[in-house]
Amino acid sequence: MASNLPLEDFVFSAGGGFLFGAVAGYAIKKVMKIAAVVVGLFVAALAYLSYKGLIDIKWIAMENATRSGFFMYRLYVITFFATSDHDLRCSPKLNNIRNST
Q1: What distance in Å separates the CA atoms of residue 37 and residue 41, rounded to the nearest whole number?
Q2: Which letter, b or e, does each residue of 31-61 get, where b requires 16 or more Cβ atoms within 10 Å of its Cβ?
Q3: Which of 12, 23, 37, 89 has a beta carbon 3.0–4.6 Å from 94's, enabling a disulfide?
């Protein structure tokens, strides 16, 4: 059965999702880069102020807090994928390999 949609409507409706996804991905990438620069400048400023003796930073405590934060994030991601119904396999061959073990 042929569709009654003109070709132009089909192209714009199918391409709209792609265009929105591409723009959103580009924006997220730029925001993450800016956030990384801001965090890097903040840590550099802390190091400079510590070097000048204006503040005292407990670097070991900061390192431990950062490591525990990354550990909790990794644990969250592993738990999310282990307890959800997400099936990231795209090949039936991989599915057979997994089921046979």
Answers
A1: 6
A2: eeeeeeeeeeeeeeeeeeeeeeeeeeeeeee
A3: 89
Higher pLDDT, 17 or 95: 17
20-23 contact pairs (CB < 8 A, 24+): none
Every domain of the chain and the residues it spans:
1-56, 58-101
Q: How far is CA 46 from the centre of its chain?
A: 26
Q: What confidence category does residue 1 fall into, taking pLDDT thresholds of 50, 70 and 90?
A: very low
**The pTM is what?**
0.54
